[in-house]
What does this fold into?
Amino acid sequence: MEKLRNLLKGPPAMAALSGVVAAAVVLAVAELAGAFFTARATPVFALGSTFIDFTPSWMKDFAIATFGTNDKAALFVGMGLTIAVLACVLGVVAYRRWALGVMGVLLMGAIIVTSVVTRAGVGPADAIPSVVGTIAGLMVLRLLVNRLRGLKAWPDAPADSAVPGGSTRRRFFAAAGITAAAAGIAATGGRLLGAARSNIARARDAMQLPAPASAAAAIPGAVQSPVAGVPPWLTPNGAFYRIDTALSVPEINAGEWELRVHGLVEEEVRLTFQDLLDADLIESHVTLTCVSNPVGGNLAGNAKWLGLPTRDVLARARPKDGADMVLSTSIDGFSASTPLEVLQDGRDAMLAIGMNGEPLPLEHGYPVRMVVPGLYGFVSATKWVVDLEVTRFADNKAYWTERGWSERGPIKTMARVDVPRSFAKVPAGKVAVGGTAWAQTRGITKVELQIDNGDWVEVDLSAEASLVTWRQWSYEWDAAPGPHYLKVRATDGTGEVQTEQRADPVPDGASGWQSVMVTVE
It folds into this structure.
């Protein structure tokens, strides 16, 4: 134990600490300076976005399957640990060979700058915060290494470590502690200053949405399952799932937003946000589902959307013969491939500006996003959309298609048990079972429940609002003591029964019957 304590107090450990403090200064100073530049110019978000771009598909799929909507938090934790380890190594290298340490810091700085300037919507000037941060970090590393080399007690200090007057451990740790605290203050100040300078959230909160030319159909009175614990039929904005590639939520001034419609069209079209406000908007309840949703998963939500039908926009552009796909692109570089015919048929595909009676939340695509009933989000639900290119599947690939997912993503019929949860313990007797099913554009006509491999029994369906929204269900189960397994399946409006065949989300969505294990006491 004493040997370990001495090791932790030795020069390698303290040199590693110097590297960590210097790395913290790099990020903190860049965060502070970045408050005056594009939000995506900060090193953390730029590095994270670049990491996502180069991450193998299997690792992304694992992250989403394991962490769900917390995948971004998990990424930041992983990045933090990686940066800390690399900083430790650089600190030790700088202590042993200062020139090599400088080269290592400059290399990392170059990687950060490259990550920043290659992000969509970021200009060369946005590299300034990273450059300033790198210089500040290098200065701090030099200061701490000099103090460390001046410790007279180290018999293995480098030959060039003579520092007039020497140093002490206490002075070294004081310098490291003060610097780390200053870095924390700088990072916090940068966040606060950036938030204060941004008026996008305030502009969004003050926005008044126009009344739709075509209001959403009235919701039947019995759409909600009577079983307590089943999610609300209309998902609140704050509870709506979020899966996207943006680590930093884009902040777009609605007054400056513009959509370009181009490609294989007779006429290029450009729309401003005011054009959308002045147009004949429609309102529709639509259930969205993520292709990463596992069997029984919660990456689905139902909301009331307000927007301009994409068929109206495409009618102005007049697609040319041979076009079969629209490549929609977000301001952060994400793209989705949507079949052209889906955006031109009678479904309520739209450029949405409102969600549940209020402007889109920033994290859900403010000021404009795409909503397309019947397709998984990875091929349709582009947030912060700024570009629609009418093209062909044979000529262009979207973000996820390039990473092994399918070109087209029709939503599969799915049913899940929301209550009771898997591994729940319930009292014997009458047990309320409830859940949700969806088959957007086809509707749900029947849901069946199987208990312990017995006969399938038809459950009670709540009212159907439309073919593009989910449908909830309920069942009263006379439960006997012991462990039990509940399975559920749905039948869509075409008469097709949900398949039992299990499939992973890759490449076009999960399939199979959900099985829930319940203990009756």
Summary: The chain has twelve helices and 19 strands.
